[in-house]
Automatic annotation (TrEMBL):
Keywords on record: Membrane, Transmembrane, Transmembrane helix
Species assigned in the record: Rheinheimera lutimaris
Name of the featured protein: DUF1049 domain-containing protein
Residues annotated as transmembrane: 45-65
Membrane in keyword set: yes
Length: 80
């Protein structure tokens, strides 16, 4: 049941994303520090969404590795 709910939420988010993409076709200027580009609004949203997901996964991975390293250090000091 939980898996079905999870799949339904993912499908709903994909549908909302497709609708957002089809509605927002106008161009917008994206001015960053070293580059300037003219992109569609949906492309800008997708870029920042993927950037946020990537950064979030990297932070979660670093946090997970840090917790595992603390556990390994505790085990090695307990055995000596």
């Amino acid at each position: 049941m939980r898996r079905l709910l999870y799949i339904a939420v993912i499908v709903a988010l994909i549908v909302v994303g497709v609708l957002f993409g089809s509605i927002n076709q106008q161009l917008a200027d994206l001015n960053l520090l070293i580059i300037s580009a003219r992109l569609r609004v949906v492309d800008i949203a997708l870029i920042f969404l993927l950037l946020g997901i990537t950064l979030g996964l990297m932070i979660a991975l670093l946090y997970s590795l840090q917790r595992k390293a603390k556990g390994w250090l505790r085990k090695s000091t307990d055995n000596s």
